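Q: What changes when beta-D-glucopyranose is included in the input?
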Amino acid sequence: MAKAIGVDIGGTGIKAGIVDLSQGKLESDRIRVDTPKGATPKDVLNAVVEVLDTLDVRSSNLPLGVAFPAIVKNGKTLSAANVSDDWVGFEAEKFFEDGLGRHITFVNDADAAGVAEVRHGAARDVSGLTILTTLGTGIGSAFLYDGQLLPNTELGHLDYKGDSIERWTAYSAMERESLSWEDWSARLQVFYSHVEFLFSPDMFVVGGGVSKHPESFLPLLELNTPIIPAIHRNSSGIIGAASLAND
Ligand code: BGC
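A: The predicted holo structure follows.
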């Protein structure tokens, strides 16, 4: 059975698991630790070591994929929205490879989630353009055209009144401002209508922890594009990172 390890670093939590790649699902427990305050590279590396130790895979030679909430180009992180500014222009892949003493594959977190859903989840048989969005601490996005990933799309940073729209529309905004589902959905409507107009996708897939409660907000949205929850919910990033590491 093909297996790989996936680690999903988020603004709030760091999650990891061993993935059965033929089934596209976790074959271990899903391990989680809080993302260290400030999320500096050194602290994040230590937290990744901790989750790998808990899974007992630190010296395993299975492929290891690490997903991170920033633009990732050729192993370098080029942005930092919900993590320390130290990550901007940082050789992140090399830093983790040196720190872990092994090869890794380093990718954007939403891209990883998109790959999981297109290979093993909600968007498996969708042709044309699938846009996956993760609604969590920020908003992440992945574009998949006929199953092929177009990386680093960053729709959470579309402008809204001079700021990134994720500040106003991510799930963290709902929590921070104690919004009702209706009030939050009205914000999501602005976001998704705009994205729909710009890209005419064939399918929206919604990931992130809040995809556990699709009935509370998806029916409130009025779109011409079908919008469905991610199947792997909070594990998409782990599964997609593992899957990309095995490519
Ligand atoms: C980051 C993205 C990330 C998203 C979800 C955004 O703030 O810029 O790279 O995918 O948050 O974590």
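Observations recorded in class: The first strand starts at residue 3 and ends at 9.
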